[in-house]
Design goal:
Layout (H helix, E strand, L loop, with lengths): L1 E2 L10 E5 L3 H12 L3 E5 L3 H9 L3 E2 L3 H5 L4 E4 L4 H9 L13 E4 L5 H12 L4 E4 L2 E2 L1 H7 L2 E6 L2 H14 E8 L4 H29 L4 H8 L7 H12 L8 H18 L4 H18 L7 H9 L11
Parallel strand pairs: 2-3, 2-5, 3-4, 5-6, 6-7, 9-10
Antiparallel strand pairs: 1-10, 8-9
Helix pairs in contact: 1-6, 1-7, 8-10, 8-11, 8-12, 8-13, 11-12
Length: 312
């Protein structure tokens, strides 16, 4: 394993960015700030208009965005969307120049990443399996953590974009799929920690504790986690605008269950967390902030939380 982006890679300035959601948009801002020529694509017309207003170019399809690009960064939700962007009608594999690199940031089953890499590399392009962590704010600051695996040539080709988007870059292996596997370990922990934080905060509310004081005490104590510290202010503020949605963890913890079943490996704690995210999604909060798991606890127990009704 190496930590850091190799210094020997050549500079290439033309990039395509597929996906201008909360993470992708911030990554686009970081690419522009670093001086790259960036062409963006998204299904949301408002996101495209905003990106143009900030100096980016836009396109009507992934294939158009990727035409003549040396680097194509894909920031979509899952493997199915990644496959469509790569190989579907109007996909980027049709227009990427030979020797260009596709940087795949979606969270997916490692086997899918290996399959996509093999297909794309057979056409003379590179594939960098590069899932990300850090949230929208760090994406906009160019301070993401990137968990990457791919060939030295893929890393070299992607270097200008990697330097712009990530403050921590882990090159974990030369084979695609290893980065995806590391990301799934991260997501197992992240999902469990969010569910546990929501349970603990609502448990405190049920016992009539001062919730801001609970936050102050726990963040200074051994029970703290990054997710408790990051997500529980959403609960304290009653603000569930989606920074990361409940359904993201329905997907990711579901992938972990599939991987665990294939490996004959028990993962009961993440399975329990998945059930809480599923129940929250089923209660109509799937597209809202993942801290909404606390709202589910509150609603089924009649426990008051800021901005929430108290009846079960």
């Amino acid at each position: 394993m190496t930590h850091g982006i190799p210094a020997s890679a050549p500079v290439r300035a033309h990039a395509a960015l597929i996906g201008l959601g909360s993470m992708g948009y911030g990554m686009g801002q970081s690419l522009l700030r670093a001086g790259l020529d960036v062409t963006g694509y998204d299904v949301n017309a408002a996101s495209l208009a905003r990106f143009r207003s900030e100096g980016g170019a836009t396109a009507d399809s992934p294939a158009e965005a990727a035409r003549d690009a040396a680097i194509v960064v894909s920031v979509v939700v899952n493997a199915a969307q990644t496959e469509a962007i790569l190989f579907g009608p109007g996909g980027v594999a049709e227009t990427m120049r030979e020797g260009a690199v596709f940087v795949s940031c979606a969270t997916m089953d490692p086997e899918k990443a290996r399959t996509f890499a093999a297909r794309l590399e057979a056409s003379g392009r590179h594939y960098l399996d590069a899932p990300i962590s850090g949230g929208a704010q760090r994406a906009a600051l160019g301070e993401l953590t990137m968990l990457a695996s791919g060939s030295p040539a893929a890393v070299a080709a992607a270097k200008p974009a990697l330097e712009a988007m990530a403050s921590k870059f882990y090159l974990l292996d030369e084979a695609a799929g290893i980065g995806a596997a590391f990301k799934m370990v991260n997501q197992l922990l992240a999902g469990v920690h969010i569910a546990a934080a929501c349970e603990a905060m609502t448990f405190a509310a049920r016992h009539g504790l001062d919730l801001p004081k609970v936050y102050e005490v726990i963040t200074a104590s051994a029970g703290n986690s990054w997710m408790f510290e990051n997500r529980m202010p959403h609960v304290l503020d009653g603000d569930y605008r989606p920074r990361s949605a409940v359904n993201i963890f329905v997907k990711d913890l579901g992938i972990i269950q599939d991987m665990a079943r294939d490996a004959r490996f028990p993962v009961p704690i993440s399975a329990a967390a998945l059930q809480m995210f599923l129940a929250t999604s089923a209660a109509g909060m799937g597209e809202e902030d993942d801290a909404s798991v606390a709202r589910l606890y509150a609603r089924i127990t009649g426990t008051p939380l800021p901005g929430e009704p108290t009846s079960p």
